[in-house]
Amino acid sequence: MPNAADTDGILLQNLADAGCGPEIIRQCMALVQKQNQAELMRVLSRHRQTLLDTVHQNEKRIDCLDYLVYTLKKQNKSQ
Q1: Helix or strand or coil: residue 3?
Q2: pLDDT per residue as tens digits for the range 16-45
Q3: pTM over 0.85
Q4: Residue 6: strand, helix, or coil
């Protein structure tokens, strides 16, 4: 774990913890070095949207599974 004064280490750890892959991490670190905050925010926003899309996809899968369980229980009660 990086110490509090190691801002690059903290950034690397935070990006990794957020599920960023090596390419996104490399890109973000380069943008930080270039002090291109606007592009950095776009990259992070795209990654956030990707994560959110995954959450929504999994929510739909859970809904389908819940409906299946509900239907099976309902059929079981009527027999």
Answers
A1: coil
A2: 999 999 999 999 999 999 999 999 999 999
A3: no
A4: coil
